[in-house]
Amino acid sequence: MWLRSQARWWCGALALAGALFGCASAAELSALAEHQIKALYLFNFTKYVEWPAAASNAAPFVIGVCEALEVRNDLVEITRDKRVQGRAIVIQAVRSAQDVGACDLLFIGATDQARIAEFLRPSRNAAVLTVGSAENFLALGGMVNFVRREDKLRLEIGLDAVQRARLVMSAKLLAIAGTIKGRADPMRK
Amino acid sequence: MGRFRQLSIRNKQMLISMLTSGVALLLACTGFVLYDVLTAQEEMRQNLLTLAEVLGNNSTGALDFNVPKEATEVLSALKARADVTAACIYTKDGTVFARYAQSGSPADSVPPPCQPAGHRFERDRMLLFHPVEQNGEVLGTLFIQANLDALAQRMQQYLKIGIGVLLAAMLMAFLLSLWFQRFITEPVLHLVQATRAVAQKKDYAVRVPKESVDELGQFIDDFNEMLAQIQARDAALHEAQARLEQRVAERTQELQAEVAERKRVESQLLQAQKMEAVGQLAGGVAHDFNNILAAIILQLDLLQDEPGLSPRVREDLQEVDKGAHRAAELTRQLLLFSRRQIMQMKPVDLNEVLADLLKMLRRLLGEHIDITIHGEPGPLWVDADAGMMQQVVMNLCVNARDAMPQGGQLTLGTRVLDIQAETVLANTEARPGRFVCLSVTDTGCGIGTQTLPRIFEPFFTTKEVGRGTGMGLATVYGIVKQHQGWIEVESALNVGTTFRVYLPARLAAPDGESVTALAPLPRGRETVLVVEDDAPLRKLSVTTLQRLGYHVMEAPHGAAALRQWNDYGGNIDLLLTDMVMPEGINGLDLAQRLRILKPGLKVIISTGYSQEVARLSAGKELDLICLTKPYEMRVLANAVRDCLDRV
Ligand SMILES: Nc1ncnc2c1ncn2[C@@H]1O[C@H](COP(=O)(O)OP(=O)(O)O)[C@@H](O)[C@H]1O
Among B123, B76, B126, B124, which residue's Cα sits nearest to residue B102? Predict the structure, then answer.
């Protein structure tokens, strides 16, 4: 059992590395494991979202991962040698709500609603892009939610939460999002 | 090209200007169109590039988050672009991510495999591959295919405009060159006309009007100048030619005259040579004949002096004497002709000679011949033998009489004239200087051209036997020659003949001359040595001298004479010697040798050849007397006495 899961992980890691080094295709993407895709998307979000200007460029861009070990591991792999708006990237495991304040992007892998709410609360008024992977994530005040639909990973965006956090989300990201909740979006083309 | 060469210069120029402008315009149009096409292509590329940039930018999200639907939607915005026929987005690995095809175009056309960024034009479309990037990261490739309809349309428009402009330009070029032709073609045509006039009519007087001051004008100036020069040269040439022709004509005339002159001179020379030869011959015969006659005459003299001859014998002897004298006369004439007669040169007045002869001539010529004398006034002195001069006149007058049997006019004339060097050329015998001319003109039958060259030959006569001897003119010739003169004859058949005798004029009048009267033969007692190879003649001379009282010794030739001299020593007072003798010593040599033994020895040389003595004694200052054979007793006696009496 362990062996099997180990093998699967390695396969996914290899494929992901291939994708990142310039040969990932849509087909390959679809061949990736879900956690891998999630990790890739998480990193991609940094390109479509603008954070309020940071106090110092020297401060690293912190991606917090909560209860998603695989995704975190993948992220570490993906963001190696990468930068976001000139800032180095740090992947941080988020275990308690106190850790949330230091994050710029937070992935909450938990599916338990109470737990999600617990992690969302401290980020409510901070410029933290919160990404989740649960049924009511947007309703709980999350910003981006991964949903599986027609065997494909789709995005749900809660625009109100994004705007409340003073984050600016690219129209392109909105355009590809399966569902957008919140006010009718004037930026939608 | 050959066809182009045949065109007239007008058409050529037209064609050239039209071709030039056409080609230039075509090139310009092509350049312009090419530039425009390139610009249009670049514009199109930029356009598509911008489009690709926008589309690519809009598709990054779709690519990043793998949403082909979104990408397809982005591409579908191309509907608004009529020129874009197809588009496609490839993922990084080249698989088709999303595609677009214009409605109407084959929708199932498979997009080309992904290619590196760039663009290219195909026959009717343009293909553009453009990377889809985000923050410098390549996410995929965008492909756009556009048709070239706009470009083609533009090209068509250009073509129309271009053709229109070309046609208009050609028309303008045509009209302009028609207008400008006046400045180039017309002067050239004028030139051509002028050249043709020159070439065909040889008319160098034409000039081309100058209409401009450019190279053509310069050329026309030069051409006119050239024509002027040719004209001048032509005129000069014509003049030179005329001069040359004239000179050729003159020279031809001169040459003809020269040739005629030379012929005449040659014939004269021939005549002179002939006369000389005949003279030599006649002279040779006459010399011997003369000696014989001299002997006969002396013998007759002696015989007639013989006392106690019967009157009948005396009469016969007189007849023989007459005959001998006639023979002697003939011989004398021959010797005269051959110029071997010794002359008694004295100053003679030719007018006086004529006057003296006139009476006798009237008798000689008869009643029916009228004689006129046109004498130059005053005495005409010549150095001559008077007797010979009389003979010349007589002979010429007798001939004139014979030429006028029916009677006529005889004119005798004398005059003095100076012969110029030019006149001399006409006659080989003539010499320049002062001459006295004696002319005898008759109105007789004249002398034919056949006869004329021969009349001076001895024994040439046209008269019947017994009437003419043929010696008359020969004698005249000889005498005149001996007097350093010459004769000219001018004759026309049935009109008459003129003989002109030229004799050197004596420049000064002579002192008074005494005429020797006939006197008894002079005698002497001196010793005389007679040297003569002809024995009878020698005997006669000896006898004659002995009769006159001289002491005489004789010798047949020079050697014998020298012996005689040795025997008698200085007793000899006078040497009478023949000139030509055998044994190698001639008379002159003998005289010289004896003179060495006895200077002052008196010498008489007898000869038939007077010239010989003159020739041999020339420059030797010999004091001697010449005696011409045949001589009479009186002559011999006088000569001997004269010689002995000389101081
Ligand atoms: N005055 C003259 N007129 C015509 N013929 C002449 C005249 N004188 C000479 N002749 C011609 O020249 C020839 C030679 O003349 P000449 O020597 O005197 O000899 P001859 O009188 O004896 O004939 C003559 O026979 C005659 O034909």
Answer: B76
Ligand 1 center from residue B113 Cα (angstroms): 149
Per-residue pLDDT tens over the stretch B467-482: 777 888 988 988 898 8
Q: What is the CB < 6 Å shell around ligand 1?
A: B 395, 399-400, 403, 442, 444-445, 447, 451, 455, 460-463, 468-470, 472-474, 497
Measured CA to CA, the distance from residue B472 to residue B459 in angstroms comes to 9
Are B53 and B13 in a shared domain?
yes
Residues A20, A44, single domain; the answer is no
Record the tokens describing residue B607, joined without a space.
């000869």
A-B Cβ pairs (cutoff 8 Å, strict) = 45
pTM, two decimals, is 0.43
Q: Do A26 and B97 touch (CB under 8 A)?
A: yes
3-state secondary structure B93-106: CCCEEEEEECCCCC
Residues of chain B where predicted confidence (pLDDT) is lower than 70: 1, 105-109, 339-342, 422-426, 466, 509-520, 569, 609-622, 647
Per-residue model confidence as pLDDT tens digits over B78-116: 888 888 888 999 988 888 888 888 877 665 567 788 888
Tokens standing for residue B404: 């006028």
Give yes or no: residues A125 and A137 share one domain: yes
Judging contacts by C-beta atoms under 8 Å, the chain A residues touching residue B97 are 26
Structural domain harbouring A15: 1-31
Query: How is residue B107 annotated by DSSP?
Result: T
* Nearest chain A alpha carbon to B77: A189
Q: Please indicate, yes or no, whether residues B66 and B153 belong to a single structural domain of this protein.
A: yes
The pair phi, psi for residue B602, each rounded to 5°, is -80, 140
Q: How many domains does chain A have?
A: 2
B204 in Cβ contact with B234 (< 8 Å):
yes
Strand order in the sheet with B118-121: B96-101, B84-91, B137-147, B125-134, B118-121
Instruction: Give the percent of chain B with pLDDT over 90.
Output: 14
Q: Which domain holds residue B568?
A: 527-645
- The answer to the question of residue A188 being in a domain is no
ipTM score assigned to the predicted complex: 0.75
Name every residue whose Cβ is closer than 8 Å to that of residue B116 and which is 6 or more positions away in sequence. Answer: B129
Cβ contact A120:A142 at 8 Å: yes
